[in-house]
Amino acid sequence: MCIYEDQIGKFDWRQTYVGRIKFAQFDTVSTAKRIIVATEENVLAALNLKTGQVVWRHVFESASSGNIQLLHVGEKITTVTGSNPYLVRGWDSASGVLMWEWTLALQNDQQAVYSEWWVQNNKLVHLLPVIGSHLEVTMYNLLTGSNRGATSKLPAVWNNDGCVLTAPYYTCVSGNMGSQILLSLDVTSNVIQIISKPLSNFINLKESIGGNLRPLDNSVVPGFIVDDKKVLLIKENSFEAVGKELVDEMASATVIDGGNEQVLLQTWQDDEKGFQLTAYSISTNSEVTEIQCSDPTMSIPEAEFLAVMCSRKAKEQYACRLLVNAADDALHLMQQGGRSLWTREEALANVVTAEFVDLPVSDTEAAIESEFDQKEGSVWSAFSRRLHTQYTQLQNLIRNLQGQSAPEDSTNALVRDYFNLHKIMVLITEAGKKLHALVLLDEDETVQVFPISAAPLVENLYMYVAEKETGKVQGYALKYNGVSVEAQRTWSVQLGGPGPAQIVAVATRSRLERVRSPGRALADRSVLYKYSNPNLVLFVVEKPDPTHKEVVTAVVLDAVTGALLGASSHRRARALPLAVHADNCFAYLYRSEKHRRLEIATLELYEGQERWLEPDVAFSSFASDRAPAVERQAYILPATAAAAAFTITERSLADRHVLLGLTTGAVIEIPWAYLEARRGLTGGDEALLPYTPELPLPSEASLNYNRTVERVRGVLTAPAGLESTSLVLVTGLDLFYTRVAPSKTFDLLKDDFDYYLITIVLGALIVATYSTKYFASRKMLKLAWK
Amino acid sequence: MFRLDILIVALGFISNVFCALSSAEEENGNGRYFIEGRVFPAEDQDPTNWQVDTRVHVNGGEYIGFIKDDGSFVIHNVLTGSYVVEIVHPDYFYEPIRVEINSKGKYRARKVNYIQTSQIIQVPYPLRMKVMSKIRYFQVREQWRLTDFLFNPMVIMMVLPLLLIMILPKMMNDPDTKEDFKQISNMAKMSEFPEMSEMFTSLFSKGSAKVNAKPKQVKKRQ
Predict the structure, then answer these.
(1) At what angle do helices B175-192 and B208-221 cross, to 10 degrees?
(2) Which residues contact A130 (CB under 8 A, 6 or more apart)?
(3) Can you give the residue ranges of the ER membrane protein complex subunit 1 C-terminal domain (chain A) (predicted)?
């Protein structure tokens, strides 16, 4: 449960992420070279330019109040977060410390979502376009939020929803099909000057739909792309067409300032030629070959320029840093010529679920196993095989002793270790695929099986469908009738009584879970048998109530028969989407509104003092019609939890602990003995702790000590080959992996086991034995001579 | 330090008065209020950059506040209600405080008590959050101590027979019991490891003379 200080990083690792990048800018002001990023996960961070590591990081609220609307890196960093009311904050870019903070509430709440923000001359500019009417522009003092009183309303009847902002220009395409006009307006200038040109000046309106505008990505010059083809820049209050059109429709384009000339950069992913990067000087109309790149081995889907910085050295050579965002949420920093400096896989900040996969056994281990497989063959061949494998093992041993590892190629390096502690984790992120045989049940109760060849495998399959919003649960029996799979509705339950209810959490048993013992011994030497039904499902339902506001009800159902086996309800409470189930134990969390605290409730199902089934008889939901006894208990949790899981071990011999991921970033391990529903029962049962309302959360129970995991989303557990050990992966914004031993490492020598002491003691014992014997015999010899 | 304390207290007092006077002003138009306070770091904390690692969580992250250079923080746009304000730092523990804002915009800060929810111990507002303790995540390895070594079962196992064999006979000066004891110990030696002893003595002494001599000696005596 607790670790020693010298064990830091021995069994665990943490990786920190920031999420998919929304805005990024190079910090050119401070001396430390950094990239400041703001992400879709509402994180503001500074990344080291050379390594890509996080220098500092601020995590905002995960709700819409933490959404980052603007990132501006000047002398100080400015962010605008939230969604009416907004918060404007200034940060010191070197240290990340908050410098100033003020709040801004817009009067027009419904239009607020269309707000655009930017920083100009130490003023925060807010633009609110009202479609078909006007533009509202307000400037605020960046540090204090005082706005010289006025919001200027610029009449703009031509304003529509296809307009783009390339600060400070607001550009629209207006007019009838075929005779559209391109209009652009500097919204911050004191004099209203509308730049207007017919669209046909730039593109052939007969060939294209006309009027689709897309701004350049983080360009130094305001500019936009018309119809994914023509690049237009706004210079000195007029449009300027770039000589070269967009090479690919999907390309991301930007204009950079390369010393004395401006360069148009484009990047896209070609199906055959791979990653493409082109550079084109606007003033000289020539290609800049040293920046360009075409690499078929590289794949950056939907590449998009986040920030580009180029400088020209004396030798007329470009030195560029290109920060590129990809559709797979990866962040790449490249230099001129497309060489990648580092990559951050930010998709891992969004892990949906994970599987632990066993590694294959090594060749020598496999050879030993194959010996037992071959039943045929003479004794001599088996003997020679045995000699051969032992010879290779001996070779490996000698090689290891000599300090060389076995000659391995990269594929061989991934082999299973002795205790099966090393595993591969397959993480499924939000943009992922799952390949399994799937059984789908349509709304009209027809069954689809993917792939279709798997249909004959459907036999004795039961499904339940829970409607999250209504609280209705229906059970189906699936059968293969030779042609197709049919679903038959077998049961239907309205959870939480009549009326609408919301299912907040569902907990099912882990398929890795095993049941160790049929019961538990009591103090009086009798056995209390557990109700070990593998088909149990826990539903946590929240329901409005006329007298108690909200009522949380937890219902345990048999998913095959629909039988209600246990229930518990809490008045004036809000359910949390956290529920876990293993064996006959259930735990779920809810917020008690009455006492304004978080509580964790547990349920345990027991058959009683007598066993219902004979030993070795498999449990069947249809065979038993008796209801188990339900034990209930609830405890106060003095923290806020965001994820929960049970530890799982190979054969469930070790104790079962509950792991809770807290919003503070800690992952706490609570032994089931503290949560037990039978805790506090009187009757001299020594194994039970006396009841205390508040759960102790000692800091030593924290699995990840000060390596906190920001915004914990899930805790995943898997058994290791060692019975004592369970592997734990915590997902969230960060990833944290460790292993826990719920019953201590009873099958492993302690990691501080004193090998020297035992060797010295044994050696000393042997020496003492024989020396005393020698002295005794000498003494006896002397005595005999007397 | 003392002077600084006075200053802080005075500041706190002034802001208290200010708040009392201007509770209506704290509202920014939308029925939203703000919670303010100040965090005092531990003395052994890095004075330059502790603000970045410290966060203010309201209701477990529903609102998040950041700390300015001087340790002050403000949580903006809070509606009326009851909030638990906690300071989150990976290495230091701060006591959480419950802040209640009523519909009139009056503030009340009190200690968090999850068990007796009606018990009110008021604390000053604006909040003053001080480090309670450094969080101890790790077990302390046992130091090597002589007593631990001596009471180690293995050491006892080694020392106790030594005592029995060497000291006990000397203590018992009575010749008869001495004789008996010797006989018993010889018997024990004979039965326990005769082969091993022979093997080892032959190994170490490189001669067969002693090996033959010793059993003979014993036999003579018997």
Answers:
(1) 130
(2) A111, A136, A159
(3) 583-785
Model confidence at A107, in pLDDT bands (50, 70, 90)? confident
| Cβ distance of A784 and B221 shorter than 8 Å | yes
User: Do A526 and A566 reside in the same domain of the chain?
Assistant: yes
| Residues 136 through 155 of chain B touching chain A, CB cutoff 8 Å | 136-141, 152, 154-155
Beta bridge partner(s), residue A731: A714
Q: Give φ, ψ of B50 to 5 degrees.
A: -70, -20
CA distance A238 to A717: 62
Which amino acid is located at A590 in the chain? Y
**B172: confidence class by pLDDT, cuts 50, 70, 90:** low
Q: Are B72 and B37 a contacting pair, CB within 8 Å?
A: yes
Same domain, A516 and A604: yes
Look-up: residue for tokens 């100033």?
Answer: A100
CA distance A39 to A657: 35
| Closest-CA residue to A664 (of B104, B64, B174) | B64
Query: From the CA of A123, how many Å to the nearest CA of chain B?
Result: 22
Tell me the chain B residues in contact with residue A662 when contact means C-beta distances shorter than 8 Å: 60
Count the residues in chain A.
786
| Preceding peptide of B126 cis, ω within 30° | yes
d(CA A9, CA B5): 40
CATH architecture of B2-134: Sandwich (2.60)
Residues in A closer than 8 angstroms to B48, CB to CB, are: 95
The stretch A3-23 carries a mean pLDDT of: 87
Mean pLDDT for the stretch of residues A257-267:
82
Closest CA to A663 of A61, A87, A38: A61
Phi and psi based region of residue A669 (left: phi greater than 0; alpha: psi -120 to 50; beta: remaining): beta
Phi (first) and psi of residue A535, to 5 degrees: -100, 20
DSSP E strand stretches across A408-446: 423-429, 438-441
* CA A366 to mean position of chain CA atoms: 35
How far, in Å, CA of A97 to CA of A107, rounded?
Answer: 31
Average pLDDT, chain A: 83
Query: What is the domain extent for residue A465?
Result: 436-494
Task: Give me the residue label for tokens 């200053």.
Answer: B7
Is residue A307 domain-resident?
Answer: no
CA distance A333 to chain B (A): 26
Same domain flag for A522 and A633:
yes
User: Above 0.90 for ipTM, yes or no?
Assistant: no
**Interval A340-387: pLDDT, tens:** 899 998 888 888 888 777 777 666 666 666 666 666 667 788 788 788
Among the candidates A450, A477, A494, a domain finishes at: A494
In whole angstroms, give the CA distance from residue A226 to residue A246. 10
Interface touch B63/A103, C-beta < 8 Å: no
